[in-house]
Amino acid sequence: MPLPVRKKILVKGVVQGVGFRPHVYKLAAGRRLAGWVKNDAAGVTIEAEGPPAEVAAFIKELSSRRPAAARIDSVAVSPARPKGGKVFLITKSGGKVPAAAIIPADLALCADCRAEMLNPADRRYLYPFTNCTNCGPRFTIVESVPYDRPYTTMAGFKMCPSCLKEYKDPLDRRFHAQPNACPVCGPAVKLSFSGKTLSGPAALEKTAALLLAGRIGALQSLGGFHLACRADRPAAVKALRAAKRRPHKPFAVMLPSLASAEKYCFISAAEAAALASAEAPVVMLRRRGTVFGEPAPGLARLGVMLPYTPLHAALFAVLAREGFAGALVMTSGNFRDEPICKDAPDVKARLAGVAAFSLFHNRPIHNRTDDSVTFEAAGEMRLARRARGYVPGAVKLPAGGGSVLACGADLKNAFCLTRGGEAFLSQHIGDLSEPLNQDFFRETLGNLKGLLKVSPSVVAHDLHPDYASSAIARSLPGKKLAVQHHAAHILSVAAEHGLTGSFLGVALDGTGYGPDGAIWGSEFLLFSGKTWRRAGHLKYFGLPGGDIGALEIWRPALSLVKQAYGPGWRSEAARVFKGVPAAKLLTVERMLDAGLNSPKTSSMGRLFDAFSFIAGLRAEATYEAQGPMELESLLAGRAAKPYLFAVSGGPSMEINPSPAVKEAVADRLAGRSAAHISGRFHAGIVRAVSCAAAAAAGGAGVRDVCLSGGVFQNRALLEGVTAALAKEGFRVYSNRLVPANDGGIALGQAWYALSGYREGTFIPNS
After folding, report:
1. pLDDT of 652-677, one tens digit each?
2. Which fold has domain 380-499+742-752?
3. pLDDT surpassing 60 at residue 1
4. Is the peptide bond before 345 cis (omega within 30 degrees of 0)?
5. Rounded to the nearest 5 degrees, what angle is found at the Cα of 238, between the Cα atoms of 237 and 239?
6. CB burial class (10 A; 0-12, 13-18, 19+) of residue 33?
7. Which of the four, 41, 165, 438, 460, has the lowest number of CB atoms within 10 Å?
């Protein structure tokens, strides 16, 4: 018989809080190995001793048979001196090793826990905090690493004998489940309404009754509070809109099951998988007919999620007993652009005028986190908002380096911290023009730096000198690096896909500060070596009033119409502006003529706004991209004759929208429908962007093209451009792991800093 060997094994990745140590224990016990396993700041460290073949097979199984929620990034093996042990143990966490552990994201309620809590005979029947090693809170409750109960907000809850027995039993799925709890020893819910307080099951039953009666309530979830009401009660939804000062922006809804969601929406296999996943995001689904028109007015798609916490599951079970199997609106518990509320005092201070009742609990939230939002496009699920379920998951980078903090942009802010070859994006922070979000940024930065054990020496930020994110960056220690907005968008794709050679980037969004002082927004950028240059853009047009043009969308339309028709525009197109007050129209026209507060822009977002106005959809928007989203919702899927966008050649190409503007105005004045104009506009812009990208990339001898920017969240545009370029033999890449909008820009800023990019003269392929 061969002599026993002992190996020391360091496993890095998402290996804490996902049942990895119990999994290792079972693998070792199955092969009768001796040794131990523990969590430490680097990940999970193991010593395993036994026959050489058994130890080798055990090491192989660590990767091949990992728990569902685990992710193995590396397994490092080194020899150790045999000790002749007979047992395998899970030992106390700790040890002085360099930080490398990754805290897992929060995990949606698993099928086993759901079955238990819906079983009247089970001791956890309708218990709102049921969890195991396969589900439950993680990031939202963790305060430090390693991930053990004393370092979470569950530290104050001492397990009862029954829970402790589960926790210590290697064959139980709650073996070392850190948030393990039950009604005897764990957190509890309370309901506050009309000056009264109820606890436990009575709180759930009264909450259901209040919702059924059409009341609006604040419900505490994993990372913060939702504001909830019946989605089938227009009066309740309208009252919620009025209270949140959100007249049209869509609300997400929660349905009790995938089967119920399929009654109201068309659901692909990928969308169904996302809904039922451990991440459990909001998924944008195509509605059947006009169901739930009030939560998402004017849009073809509805944001849908399924119950992802035991509290949600318990509430829907109580509602079902009362005969209700419909949807609840579940929107963020905040006012527009503020952080989500995370505790009862916060709700009382900020939402007292909105919520008629509050269902809350006593398990503190350490890291507030909103719901993530996903959609399917070009055959893959993509993120529009990255938060619960995905944070603090790392993006693996093509190469590592010193720690960098990238502060992101001002809208849809999320920052990024790097550690070695990994990038960690924060959860969605929001609009940094709101002071409370600046506080949220600093709070989250402190928390994440503590978890990752990093002190960044470089601080990257947007090139715009007046951004709040740039001001925050300047206030922090470290070398400062300004990164152009659209270069960062493109590099977020390159970082995701590991591109390090030469490539073309196409960035289409609303606004970004350009090195020439103009407002960029439709950019074709060539990257080679460590330099980049602008290879093309949408022809500049004036943006009277600056940012107000994103809300009063007739303003960019007027600018484009004047540019297309010249001084005689009124004789050709005045009727399009019939609904705009004459005095206001004249004032803005004079601003354009004088160049007064009318910065030049190449914004694709404002171009979409303008065409939604020309199509007759609206003159003013109440939320960002409202007109373009409504314009996309009108697409019928039929091929349309494209509007003409003239693409000029030369060292820096230019896309001229004037011919398309004239065609759209003619269609509108001829009585063509908004759907007709939408079809022709989308077909035209897909053709123009594809042709310009192919010309720029082909002329530079590159075959890789990266697509990014918030406008590429338009499915028709992303799918059309991707297909057209792929047909021409280009390799096309786009964002999947981070949003294409400004929520992913920090990843590009970080990669810019780590890679040593700079703006400069383009160096062609050799």
Report:
1. 799 999 999 999 999 999 999 999 99
2. Nucleotidyltransferase; domain 5 (3.30.420)
3. yes
4. no
5. 90
6. buried
7. 165
Strands (E), 249-298: 253-254, 265-266, 282-287
Structure tokens at 718: 């992303």
Max CA separation in the chain (angstroms): 98
Rounded distance between C-alpha atoms, residue 686 and residue 719, angstroms: 9
Nearest of 472, 488, 503 to residue 423 by alpha carbon: 488
Inter-residue contact 326 to 230 (CB < 8 Å): yes
What Rg value do the Cα atoms of the chain yield, rounded? 28
Within 10 Å of residue 584's Cβ, how many Cβ atoms? 13
**3-state SS of the chain: helix, strand, coil percent to 5?**
35, 25, 40
Non-local (6+) Cβ contacts of 654 within 8 A are 536, 537, 538, 539, 647, 648
3-state DSSP assignment of residue 697? helix
Count Cβ neighbours within 10 Å for each residue of 654-682 and write b for 16 or more, e otherwise.
bbbbbebbbbbbebbeeeeebbbbbbbbb
The bridge status of strand 71-80 relative to strand 265-266 is unpaired
Q: What is the pLDDT of residue 290?
A: 84
Strand runs labelled E in 177-333 = 189-193, 196-199, 217-220, 225-230, 253-254, 265-266, 282-287, 301-305, 328-332
3-state secondary structure of 724: helix
- For residue 248 the two structure tokens come to 């049209």
pTM of the model: 0.93
Pick the CATH number of 5-90 from 2.40.40.20, 1.20.1250.20, 3.90.870.30, 3.30.70.100: 3.30.70.100
Output the CA angle 251-384-465, nearest 5 degrees.
110
Q: Do residues 490 and 704 lie in contact, with contact meaning Cβ atoms separated by under 8 Å?
A: no
The two tokens of residue 210 are 């209040």
Cβ-based neighbour number of residue 155 at 10 Å: 14
Strands (E), 572-720: 600-601, 646-648, 653-656, 704-708
Task: Specify the fold of 103-379.
Answer: DHBP synthase (3.90.870)
Q: Cα–Cα distance between 369 and 426 in angstroms, integer?
A: 9
Q: Range with the lowest mean pLDDT among 58-72, 85-99, 523-537?
A: 85-99
pLDDT of residue 122: 98
Burial class (CB in 10 A: 0-12, 13-18, 19+), 741: buried
The number of C-alpha atoms within 13 Å of 242 and in the hemisphere containing its C-beta is 8
Locate the domains of the chain by residue range. 5-90, 103-379, 380-499+742-752
Closest-CA residue to 636 (of 675, 686, 683)? 675
* Mean pLDDT value across residues 700-709: 97
